[in-house]
Every structure is written in structure tokens, then in C-alpha cells.
Design brief:
The chain has helices spanning 3-8, 55-73, 102-112, 120-130, 141-158; strands at 20-21, 25-29, 39-43, 78-84, 95-101, 113-114, 117-118. It has a single domain (3-160), classed as HIT-like (HIT family, subunit A). The strands form 2 sheets. A 5-stranded antiparallel sheet has the order 1-2-3-5-4. Strands 6-7 form a two-stranded antiparallel sheet. By secondary structure, the chain is of the alpha+beta class. The chain binds zinc ion. Zinc ion (ZN) binds next to helix 1.
Length: 167
């Protein structure tokens, strides 16, 4: 059992649907954290470490991540994009693309700010704990709108309309 493999097989559908998939990689919204634009990029192949990736997968993940960070950076209130990979809950290699919104700092400044420095790892950890929800709650307008916007902007960037799956 692997959550990412289940998503690739269509057994689990992330909120808003798959944003992008080709023969190598897949991009979708985080399955259970209710923060719009928190995306996950993974190789289609089940591998468990970055070192196991083929160069083609690394290139694909790198370029897609660059495109996605550019797209998310333009969204209202997004101040920074975090990139991270842990593999503690889901072994299938995946990278977290996390938009740090101004409202997150406004709500959690006391927990994540030390003077004028922000503890990014702690912020991500707090968000993953406080905004974790069960399946259907993720299907809300905020998530669906952002997923649709990312899909449309990525489609324009890539010019590969046939390869972008609809929700
Ligand atoms: Zn897998």
C-alpha cells in the first residue's frame, strides 16, 4: 500500500483532481492539509529516495517545480515558497511545494517567529498539524479554485493542453 501509487492508479483522488501527469511525474494538491496551493510533486515510478530517481525524473521534477513556484508566487498573499522532502509518512519519494501566505505568519507569529527570523521548518510542521482535515473537507472552493488556477497557468506555460488532466 502506497498513497502516491494509489493516487497514480486513480484509487485516491486529491481535491481538485490531478493537476499534471505525464509518463514520469505527477502533481496534485496535498491530500489532507487545508491550505490552498500546498502541492506535491512525485515520480510516477515508486522509488523511495532522491538518489533512486533517473536523471529524466530529476529534470522533470526540477523544471515543473520551477514553473509551479513561479505560478504560486503570483497568488495573493504568498510571500515565499518552501520546498521540502521528508518521506516519513509516505515512502514514495515526493516533494512538498508549500506557499507561505502572509495570513499564516499573522496567525502563528508567536509560534514561528524569533525576532525578525521565521522558523520555516516549524511553520510547515505547525501548518501540517493545525490544518490537517479528513478527505471531503478538502473539496472546498478555496482548494478547487487554486488547483484550477495552477492547472490553467501551467497549461499556458507548457503549451501541452492534451497532457493536462481535467479535474
Ligand atoms: Zn508508491
Amino acid at each position: 500500500m502506497c498513497l502516491t501509487c494509489d493516487i497514480i492508479a486513480g484509487k485516491v483522488v486529491p481535491a481538485g483532481g490531478i493537476i499534471y501527469q505525464d509518463d514520469w511525474i505527477i502533481l496534485h494538491h496535498c491530500i489532507d492539509i487545508n491550505i490552498a496551493g500546498y502541492l506535491i510533486v512525485s515520480p510516477v515510478r515508486h522509488v523511495e529516495t532522491y538518489g533512486d530517481l533517473h536523471e529524466a525524473e530529476i529534470r522533470k521534477i526540477g523544471v515543473l517545480t520551477k514553473d509551479i513556484t513561479a505560478i504560486l508566487s503570483e497568488f495573493n498573499g504568498v510571500e515565499k515558497i518552501y520546498l521540502a522532502s521528508f518521506g516519513e509518512e509516505t515512502a514514495h519519494f515526493h516533494a512538498h511545494i508549500f506557499p507561505r501566505y502572509k495570513w499564516i505568519i499573522d496567525h502563528h507569529a508567536q509560534d514561528v517567529c524569533l525576532g525578525n527570523k521565521i522558523d520555516g521548518a516549524k511553520l510547515l510542521s505547525i501548518c501540517r498539524e493545525k490544518y490537517k482535515v479528513e478527505g471531503q473537507i478538502m473539496e472546498n472552493d478555496g482548494i478547487r479554485d487554486v488547483v484550477a488556477k495552477v492547472r490553467n497557468r501551467l497549461r499556458k506555460k507548457l503549451g501541452l493542453q492534451d497532457k493536462i488532466l481535467q479535474a
